[in-house]
Amino acid sequence: MQVTSTYRFARISAFKAREVTREIQGHSASEALDLLAFSPKKAAQLVKKTLKSAIANAENNSELRVDTLLVKEAVVGEGPTFKRFRARARGGASPLRKRTSHIRIVLSDELVPEVPVSRTKRSQSRRQEARKPEEQPGMVTQPGVETAPAPENAEAKAEEPTAQNEPTANAEPSEEKQ
After folding, report:
1. Residue 143 per-residue DSSP state
2. Residue 79: helix, strand or coil by DSSP?
3. Whole-model pTM?
4. CATH hierarchy code of domain 2-108
5. Coil, strand or helix: which one is 10?
6. Which of 14, 3, 28, 163 is nearest to 103 (CA)?
């Protein structure tokens, strides 16, 4: 089950608050509170307040256990911008933008957090090329020497007896005719 809490019109820019929410995403609720308690940023206090609200919602409204909660999402969106001005020289003015943001935290009681992993096909193919080939049966490995695959049917040839390698009981050494 998912529980959400939203802090709207927080007086901090979304850019600054996202830095903190990225840190707690995917952690358990208690770990996230610990991370926020020791963060020196202003946004950490605002996110901590929102997280405590989400935990209280989970306990009281949804009757969930606190020790099983995970931070599934911690999203910061832009709120409205207050436009002010500052007096400047010779009767001029320069604009000030006082940005606000909306902080939303989603807690879940699922066992594994779902954090999206974005990988491109190009980076996946590079990883596969960089891997060493797995050793195949019949490969000779020596330190400092590159491995080469054994020829096909090397095991089958090794098992079959050949006439050259196996002496016969009644055979005498053959003499060559000139």
Report:
1. T
2. strand
3. 0.61
4. 3.90.470.10
5. strand
6. 14
Condensed to tens digits (0 to 9), the pLDDT of residues 34-83 reads 999 999 999 999 999 999 999 999 999 999 999 999 999 999 999 999 99
Strands (DSSP E) found in 15-169? 70-87, 93-108
Instruction: Please tell me the distance from the alpha carbon of residue 5 to that of residue 17, in angstroms, as a whole number.
Output: 16
Delimit the domains of the chain by residue range: 2-108
Which two tokens mark 152? 């096909």
Q: Are 75 and 21 in contact (CB under 8 A)?
A: yes
51 neighbors 32 (Cβ within 8 angstroms) = yes
Phi, psi values for residue 4, rounded to 5°: -120, 155
For residue 178, CA distances in Å to 12, 113, 175 come to 104, 85, 9
